[in-house]
């Protein structure tokens, strides 16, 4: 922290609060705000700059983040004890103003490039894996055992002849049977097929048990897959059990590796990049540092013809009006609102509500309400037009800034994005969550320098310099854009070095477990 940096951040002249850069003790005078701190205020938390009467809205980013649940004095800590949201705290109506902020997307004179892998059909990959997918939980152990036979740390000779193959990964899950055959099965099959078709997957092997609801033959029929040179399948019951199924899989993968290795990297336009945008373990700095810096990098990518997907519908709730204003058409804006309404109904049917966020960790980091969290989360999407809205794991077929409906739980959300085609994930965190997403590399950004200093081994870029006053959003956004290009060209992320990514394959499980 630079010594001459003010102790608080003011985000907008109209805000009722400022954000503590460091822990503030009672009696601290805040120059420029004309207030004196009352009590203890942790870093990343809010301080009232004016008197706020009970029931009145409280603004941050010049947007309503909640309503005072009691009278708040200037200089007082604003958090769970005096700020809330809900019918008992006050009304909050969004002005969707469809398309009001649509503007031409700037283009660059000299498009950026990265060293990508060009598939025979023209698709561009950032990584090169062989994937083993279990159709059901019952075949997950076999799938993992097959992949383990190609682990470089256990069997260094297994992939030695194939230096261009990044690895053999097992993508297993806990469902596939005991489920309805409607929407839940459709989503599971769409997700698995999306991974099998992913540009970063050179070849895919499906392993089933044989009697499960998610029959491989039915999955292939529904998703237009078929056995061939780069896709294979079998059932454990047909080959004689666990040991024989493992050996069958190992033999199939060995047969796939020579073709998978016949690739090389070459210069390709950045327009082939498709980023999935994630945040997890958010704190009071997320919407000030890492998320806006990521948004800046997204704007740069879109200007170069690339694509970025914002998701986590429960965590943009209350800020969706900022996205509908950027929708290229009313139809696109209405598609987003339709997903919001679906979630309101979905949570109500399950005796929940959309306001059950933030998490305990988010609250400890300074986030009080879902509105506050959502406003910061939306910043990841930058400022360009919202081109289209997709349902979970739908194949992405457009360029620019997009939205995909997913849960807020990071592994489930990113799984949907990768199934849709994301060939990289960029993940911001203020609390220090650890995450990877094979077959797509995942970059981790810290929102504050304290986290960077404590957990640098897991973080790829420190955005805390923005809060420290040592760098601007634009400067960090430019660094991030360069890091994205380097990573797409093959540079390993921190999570890849630790082997994260396989356990984070978590398809969205809808409906009843039966």
Please count the beta strands (DSSP E, at least 2 residues each): 23
First-residue to last-residue Cα separation? 54 Å
| Strand line-up in the sheet with most strands | 19-20-18-17-21-22-23
Secondary structure: helix percent: 25-40%
Major sheet: 7 strands, parallel
Give the integer mean of the pLDDT values. Answer: 95
Unreliable residue runs: none
Number of helices: 15
- Please report which band the strand proportion falls in: under 5%, 5-15%, 15-25%, 25-35%, 35-45% or over 45%: 15-25%
Radius of gyration: 24 Å
Quaternary state of this entry equals single chain
Give me the secondary-structure category. Answer: alpha/beta
Q: Describe the global form.
A: globular
Structural notes for this entry:
It is a single chain. This protein has 514 residues and is of the alpha/beta class. Helices cover 29% and strands 19% of the residues. The protein contains 15 helices and 23 strands. The chain has helices at 140-148, 183-196, 216-223, 236-239, 242-261, 290-303, 320-324, 330-349, 360-364, 370-378, 410-420, 449-455, 465-468, 473-488, 494-498, and strands at 8-9, 17-20, 29-30, 35-36, 46-48, 57-60, 63-68, 77-78, 83-84, 113-118, 124-125, 129-134, 167-171, 201-208, 231-235, 265-269, 274-279, 307-310, 386-390, 400-404, 424-429, 442-446, 461-462. The strands form six sheets. Strands 19-20-18-17-21-22-23 form a seven-stranded parallel beta sheet, sandwiched between helices. Helix 3 (216-223) links the parallel strand 14 (201-208) and strand 15 (231-235). The longest helix has 20 residues, at 242-261. The termini are far apart. The model has no long low-confidence stretch (mean pLDDT 95).
């Amino acid at each position: 922290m630079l010594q001459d940096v003010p102790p608080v951040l003011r985000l907008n002249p109209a805000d009722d609060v400022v954000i503590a850069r460091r822990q503030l003790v009672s009696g601290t005078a805040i120059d420029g705000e004309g207030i004196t701190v009352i009590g203890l205020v942790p870093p990343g938390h809010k301080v009232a700059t004016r008197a706020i009467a009970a029931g009145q809205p409280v603004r941050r980013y010049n947007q309503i983040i909640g309503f005072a649940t009691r009278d708040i004095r200037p200089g007082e800590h604003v958090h769970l004890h005096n700020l809330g949201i809900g019918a008992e705290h006050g009304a909050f109506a969004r002005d969707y103003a469809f398309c009001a902020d649509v503007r031409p997307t700037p283009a660059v004179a000299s498009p950026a490039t990265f060293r990508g892998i060009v598939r025979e059909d023209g698709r561009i990959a950032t990584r090169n894996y062989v994937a083993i997918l279990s159709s059901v939980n019952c075949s997950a152990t076999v799938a993992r055992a097959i992949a383990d036979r190609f682990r470089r740390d256990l069997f260094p000779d297994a992939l030695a002849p194939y230096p261009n193959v990044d690895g053999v990964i097992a993508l297993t899950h806990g469902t596939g049977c005991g489920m309805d055959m409607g929407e839940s099965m459709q989503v599971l099959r769409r997700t698995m097929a999306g991974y099998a078709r992913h540009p970063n997957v050179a070849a895919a092997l499906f392993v089933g048990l044989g009697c499960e609801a998610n029959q491989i033959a039915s999955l292939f029929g529904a998703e237009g897959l078929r056995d061939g040179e780069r896709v294979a399948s079998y059932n454990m019951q047909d080959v004689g059990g666990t040991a024989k199924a493992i050996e069958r899989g190992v033999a199939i993968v060995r047969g796939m590796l020579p073709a998978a290795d016949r690739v090389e990297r070459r210069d390709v336009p950045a327009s082939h990049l498709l980023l999935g945008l994630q945040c997890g373990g958010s704190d009071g700095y997320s919407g000030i540092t890492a998320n806006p810096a990521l948004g800046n990098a997204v704007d740069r990518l879109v200007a170069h013809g690339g694509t970025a997907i914002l998701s986590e519908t429960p965590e943009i709730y209350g800020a969706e009006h900022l996205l509908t204003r950027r929708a290229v058409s009313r139809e696109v804006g209405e598609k987003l609102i339709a997903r919001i309404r679906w979630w309101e109904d979905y949570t109500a049917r399950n005796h929940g509500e959309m306001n059950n966020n933030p998490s305990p960790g988010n609250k400890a980091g300074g986030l009080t309400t879902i509105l506050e969290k959502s406003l910061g989360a939306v910043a990841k999407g930058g400022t360009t037009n919202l081109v289209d809205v997709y349902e979970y794991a739908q194949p992405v077929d457009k360029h620019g800034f997009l939205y995909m409906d997913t849960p807020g739980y990071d592994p489930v959300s990113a799984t949907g994005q990768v199934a849709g085609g994301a060939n990289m994930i960029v993940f911001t965190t203020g609390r220090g969550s650890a995450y990877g997403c094979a077959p797509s590399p995942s970059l981790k950004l810290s929102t504050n320098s304290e986290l960077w200093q404590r957990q640098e081994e897991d973080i790829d870029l420190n955005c805390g310099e923005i809060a420290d006053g040592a760098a601007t959003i634009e400067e960090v956004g430019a660094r991030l854009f360069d890091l994205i290009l380097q990573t797409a060209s093959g540079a390993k992320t921190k999570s890849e070095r630790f082997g994260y990514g396989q356990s984070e394959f978590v398809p969205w499980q809808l409906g009843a477990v039966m």
